[in-house]
Amino acid sequence: MSDELIAVERHAEESMLKAIQFLESELVKIRAGKANPQMLDGLAVDYYGSPMPINQVANISVLDARTLSIQPWEKNMLQPIERAIIAANMGVTPQNDGALIRIFMPPLTEERRKELVKRCQGEGEQSKVAIRNIRRDAIEQVKKLQKNGLSEDVAKGGETSIQDITDKHIALVDKHLAAKEKEIMSV
């Protein structure tokens, strides 16, 4: 098999793995009733006029299964952090006691659980689309290699191999979605 073909397959697989890792990071942000500091990843706080990630202005920890504690490094950051959490519309209300902010995760209703499952499925579909786009690009590269002298049999074998890699990663997306759905729907 051609070195170029191996490189195309390896690049496609690495790109698909990145799509899976992105899905994992997005699924962690979708809460399932348990407190998780990663829920607040991507939340920007107004820090003296410039947006900063919340984990760079405060310490976030888990007090118990349903409670997050946010301890700002500067006391005057309590209000901006509280406003950012409210503006993020996460379905939680921050409790400010003057020294730290607590976030209590309310138990999920059946309707909210179904909404979260739909959101997870949307994230999963985006990952599948990304994986299919990577497959399409890889197959186009194989066809270019074929035009540049790669034999037709080797090219077909490469396309089959890329399809197998794609199927494996799509199945991985489905596995992650099933696990997250089970986590969300369990009471």
Count of separate structural domains: 2
- The percentage of residues in β strands lies in 5-15%
CATH homology-level superfamily of the largest domain: Ribosome-recycling factor
CATH topology of the largest domain: Topoisomerase I, Chain A, domain 4
At CATH level 2, the architecture of the largest domain is Orthogonal Bundle
Gyration radius (Cα, Å) is 22 Å
Written overview of the protein:
The protein is α+β, with helices and mostly antiparallel strands and 187 residues long. The protein has two domains: 3-29 and 109-185, Ribosome-recycling factor (Topoisomerase I, Chain A, domain 4, Orthogonal Bundle); 37-104, 2-Layer Sandwich (Gyrase A, domain 2). The protein contains four helices and six strands; from the N terminus they run αββββαββαα. The chain has helices at 3-29, 78-87, 110-147, 152-185, and strands spanning 44-47, 50-53, 58-64, 67-72, 94-96, 101-104. It has a four-stranded antiparallel sheet, with helices on one face. β1 (44-47) and β2 form a beta hairpin. The model has no long low-confidence stretch (mean pLDDT 87).
